[in-house]
Design goal:
The protein has three helices and three strands. The chain is α+β, with helices and mostly antiparallel strands.
């Protein structure tokens, strides 16, 4: 009877050892997967925000009718600064280029994002460049109304 008890105790210790070994291999993988997912989510968030900022700034610049091209460029620059200050978290450098012509406003943003969890060997994605370009046509309401009237003969 005592021999059976000793054998059962040895088997239980073996099972516990296997569980410890599995835990030491499994938990770092799960933790690394969670960190990778967070890092990827932050990268995607910044990409979406930079793209939206470029689009919104170009659209706001295209709606101005009475300003000069230089004034529209300054307006778009200030809009980009306002939008970036409110939304981007991990940005070290922003390069913006605004081109204004008679027919369109073009905004190009290049952002350098520092991703977290850099010390982890398989996630060495320290700096990522995000580059987006957006353009919006400048609308001339009077010209559009005249063109529509000419088209439909009114």
């Amino acid at each position: 009877m005592i021999d059976n008890y000793i054998m059962i105790e040895k088997e239980n210790k073996k099972k516990n050892a296997y569980m410890t070994l599995e835990a030491t291999l499994l938990y770092p993988l799960i933790f690394g997967g969670i960190l990778f997912t967070i890092s990827l989510a932050l990268y995607l968030y910044h990409g979406a925000v930079v793209k939206q900022i470029a689009s919104v700034a170009a659209l706001r610049g295209s709606l101005e009718q009475q300003m000069s091209q230089k004034g529209i460029k300054q307006l778009v620059d200030s809009e980009i600064d306002k939008l970036v200050d409110e939304r981007l978290l991990l940005v070290s450098r922003i390069q913006k280029e605004v081109q204004v012509t008679e027919s369109k406003v073009q905004v190009q943003l290049q952002v350098r994002v520092k991703l977290p969890f850099v010390g982890i060997p398989f996630m060495d994605l320290e700096w990522q460049e995000l580059d987006f370009e957006s353009e919006a046509k400048r609308i001339r309401p009077v010209k559009i109304i005249r063109d529509i009237r000419r088209l439909y003969g009114s």
